[in-house]
Amino acid sequence: MSLVARSGPLTEQQERWWLRLYWREKGDIDNAWSKQWDLPAGISVEAATAALTVLVERHEVLRTAFGLGPDNLPYQLVFEAEGFRLPLTVAELGTLAEYGDEGGIHPLVGGSMYTRPLWSVRLFVEDDEVRVLSLVFEHIVLDGSGVRNLREQFLALCAGTGRPLRITHPLDRAAKERRIRRTPESRARYSPDPRALAPRLLVPATVKEETPDPRFLMSAVRYEGLLPLLDRVGRAHGVSRAMVLMHAVGWLISRYSGIPRVMVVNAIGLRLPSDDSIDLVAKALEIMVDLDEDRTLAESLTAVSAGALRAYTEELRLGVRDQDSRLRLEKERGIGSVRGLYFNYQGLSEPDTPETDGSPVPEVRVTRTDEWRSGEEPWSYATWIYVDDTTVAVDFDVDVVMLPAETVHRMSELLPEFVRLVAEQPDAPLAAARALLPPDFARSTGARLVRGTWVHLDTVAEVIAGCPGVLAAEVSEEDEEIVARVSLDGPSCLFDVHEYVLSRLHLEGDLIAPHRYRLAEGTASRATGPGLPDLAAGADWLPGDGTPVLGPTTEPERELVAALRETHGFGTVNLALTYAEAGGRAVLAPAVVETLRRRGLEGLQLPHFATAHTLRAIARALVRRTPGHAL
Predict the structure, then answer these.
(1) In the 8-state DSSP scheme, what is residue 611?
(2) Which residues, other chains included, contact 41 with Cβ-Cβ below 8 Å and sequence gap of 6+?
(3) Assign residue 63 a region: left if phi > 0, alpha if psi is -120 to 50, beta otherwise?
(4) Mind listing the pLDDT tens digit for each residue in 28-56?
(5) What are the residues facing 73 on neighbouring strands?
């Protein structure tokens, strides 16, 4: 039995991952992360097991688990190395394909609420030697350098040449986090939130037709001969391979959407150059990629690289952005969560050896395979990039409602051409790269940019028209504001309509909440809430102006208020507020769900807390678990 060496609260980065694990178990789509290594000959099961045992002893992160305390807050536990049970299984090599096909690479469940390390390893054996090692992580490491570090240590230990390395642990950094942490207001003065500058979606939905099934495309593209081209650009301008590729992918997205600014969510681990350990929790670093066409290609590339370094430095200096302040920001903008371009690079950042000759760069050979899937996360655009000694592999993982398959294929063909242009004509203006694009490359959609965010007026009108009590709805743009003209019938009021729109922000990719509502002529006046004056036909109502005070009246509403009192230490008298506005902390949302579950109520998911649902709308989503028991 392994004893606990120490424990403490989660760091801000760990909180994010704990929440991801929790909501995945409640139905959110978020798999474990896995890595498979082909091993050299001569490694026995005993040698591999011994090497893994040393890694566990060396790295506290491999002995760290999350738990839930009596105060409803998660905490981390670090187990003693002595007596620690290695999460290892052994199987025949012939079962490897079956292991992957049946989802064996994602076997971990229960990670958010149960105390155990969130990783596992399986050795695949042939002729008494380990041929393949499969690792599955939940919350340990995602960055390529950290994984390579772990593999190198494992192989060195198997060969008997391993040496002790420095280690760090998030508990060691908790005090530093407290020192550098600033309030959201003070941080905003130093570093504007990229989400305030980016549209909700990089590109809007392309068509307003029936959603295709399957709608999620993984286009795996392999580039032979691209690596020398990347390295020539990198050496000439002092940037990494990852930055050359991020610049290229960002430019392609920018030209498709027509927006010269792309928010890239870059998977960067919490590892510093002096740290040889495997560190805990990869973070999604948000980088604003500004593609100013007045710059040269070289200036544009170096500006993107400088922007990435600046974003990383600011995050180290100022700490992680507060999730709850982001919920408030997104509600003020009338949108759901912002979806940037997810960019994950794995491989050497620069070549091991310098270029020694001036030989011409070879032609790039491109091969592509497509895989279609259903049931993934909507509105996604992710690029997964892997670099080895000879090949660059780019997986375009997209929702074809946002990026059609033919557009993805064109991007895969254009990527090496853009890199070649940067290599051969670095002093040409960025605008010159447009000559690479086919005439029909740009998006085709009915959405428009309003205050920098894509919105489809028909989508807004359709959602409003679906609200009970709405007879008709027209939506227009007036002076950079979305105005909804509504005809009402029955007891509904404009606040009810607005609340209905807020509750659907996470369901529609090009929906934003109107900035103002207007009663249609001929519509009987409707109060905007109890105790508030009626609104004359033709008059405007602004959300937040005259918001009613709605106390709990139904059983689900009373139960929700009781759960908030139990988990947060306070109740609320106004169910017109969102969870964040009422003072609810994101990290305590799972405690609310579990408290209501104990009371026999379920039905809440991440969007109820992470988007602009009011507490009244959250309560309406609750259902009794016991069959036949009506609320």
Answers:
(1) S
(2) 129
(3) alpha
(4) 555 667 788 999 999 999 999 999 999 88
(5) none
